[in-house]
Design brief:
Blueprint (H helix, E strand, L loop, with lengths): L3 E3 L5 E3 L6 H4 L31 E7 L8 H12 L4 E7 L11 H12 L18 H9 L15 E4 L5 E5 L9 H8 L8
Parallel strand pairs: 3-4
Antiparallel strand pairs: 1-2, 3-5, 5-6
Length: about 200
């Protein structure tokens, strides 16, 4: 490690800043709105949530080798049913639960498309818990706790539903099937965003 010394009355050691991928996302960690977030897509480019304004959004942490992986089929059906009405699904692969998402971002995309015909965006693989958790999940968990007030993500395919104004309105466990949240999506889509005063 390179150390820099400054000439003052007494020599002082100045530690250089450590750079990491977190530096790129540091502004997102202070997000005050859902629309402030801009996670990386599978190519590493910013996917700004500002483009989701006025839409109903379902955020899901996904995995390819999980008992809940067949939920991709239900998620895609929900997406096709409501996408033209302003509904989006964003998938976030994570390998934090039983190592069930070991592939590269490209392998994950191919798996989703070939096996389940997924057409909704599946972004870059991230951590959803812990010291390296993505700012998206830090924000979501701060807005809506899970069962018994637990904030952490417990397993793959946990779901967050965001209304047209960027409010996190529902959170469901992995065991909740996509078809069982259909009515919640339909209800939110029936409400138009309120104009800002």
């Amino acid at each position: 490690m390179l150390h820099l010394y400054l000439r003052t009355k007494a020599p002082q050691l100045v530690k250089p800043a450590l750079f990491s991928s977190k530096c790129f996302f540091s502004s997102m960690s202070k997000a005050t709105s859902f629309y402030d977030l801009a996670p990386a897509d599978k190519k590493g480019e910013a996917f700004s949530f500002e483009q989701l304004k006025g839409k109903v959004v379902l955020i899901v942490n996904v995995a390819s080798k999980c008992g809940f992986t067949p939920q991709y089929k239900g998620l895609e059906a929900l997406y096709k049913k409501y996408h033209d009405q302003g509904f989006e699904i964003i998938g976030f692969p994570s390998n934090q639960f039983g190592g069930q998402e070991p592939g590269t971002d490209e392998e994950i995309t191919q798996f989703c498309e070939l096996n389940y015909g997924v057409t909704f965006p599946v972004l870059k693989k991230i951590d959803v818990n812990g010291s390296n958790e993505d700012p998206v999940y830090k924000f979501l968990k701060s807005q809506k706790s899970g069962l018994l007030g637990f904030k952490g993500i417990k397993w793959n395919f946990e779901k967050f539903l965001i209304d047209r104004e960027g409010n996190v309105v529902n959170r469901w466990a992995s065991t909740t099937s996509p078809s069982s949240i259909d009515s919640h999506v339909a209800e939110l889509l029936s409400k138009q965003p309120q104009p800002k005063a």
